[in-house]
Amino acid sequence: MVKAAVFLASLFTLVFAKPHGARDLRVHERRDTHPEGFTNRGPAQADTVLRLRLALVQNDISGLQDALMDVSTPSSAHYGEHLSKEEVFQYVTAKSETVATVNSWLAENGLTATTLSPAGDWLGFQTTVEHANELFDADFSTFTHDVTGEATVRTLSYSIPAALQGHLELVHPTITFPNPRSGLPLATTPAKRVYGNHSIDATAPSSCNTAITPTCVQELYGIPTTLATQSTNTLAVSGFIDQYANSADLKSFLKSYRPDLSSTDTFILQTLDGGSNSQTLKNAGVEADLDVQYTIGIASGVPTYFISVGDQFQDGDLEGFLDIVNYLLAEDNPPQVLTTSYGQNENTISRALANTLCNAYAQLGARGTSILFASGDGGVSGSQSASCSSFVPTFPSGCPYMTSVGATQNVNPEVAASFSSGGFSNYFGTPSYQTAAKAAFISQLGRTNSGKFNTSGRGFPDVAALGTDLKIVNAGKTTSVDGTSCASPIFASVVALLNDQLIGAGKSPLGFLNPFLYSTGASALNDITSGDNPGCNTNGFSAVKGWDPVTGLGTPNFAALLTAVGL
Q: pTM of the predicted model, to two decimals?
């Protein structure tokens, strides 16, 4: 009986012990609990298939970041000397040792991965929940969203073999949860807002008397109406969640608000991830129509692309945000400007994933692309207005390698739009270009809202533009929209027109904007000093002299910006 008991105990150990490699697993990422609004329904079914992605540690990401700052800082001897695709890839392609180590581990576990990024730093593979739990010492469970009812399989922590540390950046999607608000366009109709329509004074352009139109924006900011001349200078608009840009709506819009432009002016369509662009009028998207109408309507003559990202994501819960960057990085000549009017709350994604996407923006910026994102529409409560106790930063506005655009309302004087999201990142520290401007604001703020935000975080937005009562044509009807998504395409159009003149003068396009904006460009912006962005049962932050986390450095003054860029 004793011998039998010993045999059974040994058999039990053999059956239930994990493989030798698994005993050397190290926790790689974890979160204490699932995000608010989700319910844990228990362990996921063992045979559920997961599409997992591996981000490899890049060769020299700090070197890339240094190179980005070097070519983007006006005082640098290398200002404007943007990197080629091959030069960027040298920084981010994983070392051969990393590739070999990860592929060996995959093979040992019966897995084969495919390459998901042009530099080969992202790999993808499929496996079952049962296998993934064993591989990563994880506990993949099914979580449902309390409002939408949508189910998703995630884990609250995972581990990787010690041998992969220093080679594997992260596994995705694991602890990052879907953001039910991330797919929402930021433009909404004014009827849904609690504030009133814009107001003007006697000095405002007469074109702004009843609503905001391209003519109003051009006169307010001094933007020229003459056609751009450089065909190599392009502007791209991101499209997500089946938001389709309608050509007939654009034609009607231009006929009403830019009759001086050709009736044949339109956008050039690009698609990825199974994207499309239905021209059925009822499918016309408010956000997509807004973005193409105000880029084409203001950046007169600049070739404009509408990039429709479908639902066949390669980047999981990033819902195409990384895919579109990788798509553009694969091009020999990516657009000089990219504007996006979508975003999410920073706390919905893991710190490692946010950092990886931010570094992808650094790659595109080093190539000479200005990346602009709407900051969000929830004031200090996040991308959309929500209840909160501490301020909620948005993503990717907290990333230091892109330009975040807030919103204003009223005309002469412009004031901060109350919905303009702004604050300080909990993931990213203060970048060097922002140190002085942010310190001045924090000093002036004193103890107001103390403890509700991260005083050491990167501040956003960086700049602003009009964001209320913009006239658009959608599904054949004229309507008005509000949001920081109105502001981003406006500011992007200004940058595109500056690039047109720079290229025409034999100079480089602006590329990553922030080092310029916070130095020689700061005085070329209209400082907004009134208004605030309430949320979380507070008045939020206030717009003040200098930079502030409501309207950033201010709104554009085209003539002054031309001088600032050396024209």
A: 0.91
